[in-house]
Design brief:
By secondary structure, this protein is α/β, with parallel strands linked by helices. Strands 3-2-4-1-5-6-7-8 form an 8-stranded mixed sheet, sandwiched between helices. A hairpin with a 7-residue loop joins strand 7 and strand 8. Helix 5 runs parallel beside helix 6. 44% of the residues are buried.
């Protein structure tokens, strides 16, 4: 049996799948559960319609069949995207972007730890140079992860120079991974996007950028996606990291955000601990979500 998780649909669906047979109430309850879990009304409607067709085609009234079909359908839709991290380059450079407050800095610490656990050497660049608290927080997480860190030499130092220095160190010392923290303030979107473009330009004088990961907070749902539209449009995002899935009961957001943005989810955060970041696997996620 799949491990129970706080974002699992299984609690909402348990009574439904425990009934004697599928009836009209089943469909109403299923749609309500999907919308409550932040699939969004359009996707919830599509899933219910597809499942109705399958139930009719296979002439079944058994809720257990419906449960299996739901799990398979969610997995199939999640699997349309390539969730593999592209980190083959040496050094492999990852830019991490996102609106302030989504858990970006802690995610970088967890990501560094994730890479270290998988046998990679890592250096982190604290290129959010105007927020001293962000630099200190990142330094704490990097230390916990066993990763090196390049800090700005003074407040407000050019973020691109910090990123460049981290890549330079990685190349000199033979380190495999560089993870770059970036600013998330959106008061002036054009200024922020220019800054990100400059970081990328400067870094790519030394090494290509392998991934640009956008961090999203599952608890903010579709509003969070709207806030991050500027990054999606202008920052060359290659993948998503969804944080705060623990306790949010918003597991459907994972499918909704992939389909809305056209970007794959590559990592998910399910807790506050340093080990609570994992690669995203559609099969495992669908199984845990549906139960």
């Amino acid at each position: 049996m799949a491990e129970r998780t706080p974002w699992s649909l299984s609690g909402a669906l348990r009574g439904m799948f425990g009934r004697q047979k599928i009836d009209e109430t089943t469909w109403d309850d299923l749609e309500e559960a999907l919308i409550t879990a932040d699939f969004g009304p359009d996707i919830a409607d599509e899933i219910v319609e597809q499942l109705r067709e399958q139930v009719d085609r296979f002439h079944t009234e058994d809720p257990k069949d419906l449960k299996r079909m739901l799990r398979e359908l969610i997995e199939e839709r999640l699997s349309k995207f390539d969730t593999t991290l592209n980190l083959r380059e040496r050094p492999a450079v990852t830019l991490v972007v996102g609106v302030n407050g989504v858990g970006k800095t802690t995610t970088i610490g967890k990501f560094a730890n994730f890479l270290r656990i998988n046998g990679r050497t890592v250096v982190v660049a604290a290129a959010d140079t105007f927020r001293a608290a962000a630099v200190e927080q990142l330094a704490t997480w990097a230390q916990r992860a066993g990763a090196g860190i390049v800090r700005p030499q003074q407040h407000g130092q050019d973020p691109a120079s910090v990123a460049y220095q981290a890549v330079e160190i990685a190349m000199r010392e033979g380190l495999e991974m560089v993870v770059i923290d970036t600013a998330g303030r959106l008061q002036t979107k054009s200024g922020l996007m220019d800054e990100l473009s400059k970081i990328r330009r400067v870094v790519e004088k030394l090494a290509p950028v392998s991934e640009v990961l956008l961090v999203l907070d599952a608890t903010t749902g579709q509003n969070g996606v709207a806030q991050a539209e500027a990054f999606i449009q202008h920052a060359g995002v290659t993948g998503l990291v969804v944080t705060k899935l623990d306790g949010s009961a918003k597991g459907g957001f994972v499918l909704a955000v992939q389909e809305r943005t056209g970007l794959p989810i590559k990592l998910i955060g399910q807790g506050e601990g340093i080990n609570d970041l994992a690669g995203f696997t559609p099969h495992v996620f669908a199984e845990k979500l549906v139960g």
